[in-house]
């Protein structure tokens, strides 16, 4: 993944924009303006059970041409697991467990700022209760525990000069 000197990502064409789509008319635009009906547990015709879905141990290399800086996201995990949603038994089955973890580091020295380089990790685990049990409407409640289990940064040797002023 990269960003050119003009600030455009090389994947911008994959991201949805607010531009009018070919064949879209004012009528279809007005239809889209009507508010959608709320999603309820009753909208789901069956119980859902999924062991896990997501990304495990992925890597993203990013180059920012504007600042000539490279970063790497490593050990990227974004996982939903033990998914259990049963519209007939929401009290017992209304939960999605989450695990998010990643490392982020510079590749080479930073070109600007007081930090030479860094390598930090983030771990988060939690769960989502997708539906409100009383109203049965989709109203997610997320409980998440996040932390920075390890990491390092190197400050430029000129840091003491900042305190002389």
Features:
mainly beta; 50% strand; single chain; 7 strands; 165 residues
* Number of separate helices: 2
- Determine the mean pLDDT: 83
**How much strand content do the residues show?**
over 45%
- What percent of the residues sit in helical stretches (DSSP H or I)? under 10%
- The number of distinct structural domains comes to 1
Beginning-to-end CA distance, first to last residue:
40 Å
Largest beta-sheet characterization:
7 strands, mixed
Task: Give a written overview of the molecule.
- The chain has 165 residues and is mainly beta.
- Strands 1, 2, 3, 4, 5, 6 and 7 form a seven-stranded mixed sheet that branches.
- The protein has two helices and seven strands.
- It has helices at 26-33, 159-162; strands at 2-3, 48-64, 69-85, 94-107, 115-131, 138-147, 151-155.
- It has one domain.
In short:
With 165 residues, the protein is mainly beta.
Give the topology:
Layout: E1 2-3, H1 26-33, E2 48-64, E3 69-85, E4 94-107, E5 115-131, E6 138-147, E7 151-155, H2 159-162
Parallel strand pairs: 1-2
Antiparallel strand pairs: 2-3, 3-4, 4-5, 5-6, 5-7
């Amino acid at each position: 993944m990269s960003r050119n000197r003009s600030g455009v990502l090389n994947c911008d064409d994959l991201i949805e924009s607010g531009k009018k789509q070919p064949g879209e008319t004012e009528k279809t635009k007005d239809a889209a303006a009507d508010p959608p009906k709320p999603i309820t547990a009753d909208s789901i015709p069956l119980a859902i059970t999924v062991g896990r879905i997501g990304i495990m141990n992925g890597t993203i290399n990013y180059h920012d041409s504007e600042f000539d800086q490279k970063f790497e996201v490593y050990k990227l995990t974004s996982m939903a697991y033990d998914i259990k949603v049963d519209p007939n038994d929401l009290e017992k089955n209304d939960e999605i467990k989450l695990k998010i973890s990643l490392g982020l580091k510079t590749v080479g020295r930073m070109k600007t700022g007081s930090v030479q380089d860094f390598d930090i990790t983030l771990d988060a685990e939690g769960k989502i209760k997708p539906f409100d049990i009383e109203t049965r409407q989709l109203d997610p409640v997320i409980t998440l525990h996040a932390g920075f289990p390890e990491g390092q940064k190197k400050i430029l040797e000129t840091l003491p000069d900042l305190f002389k002023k």
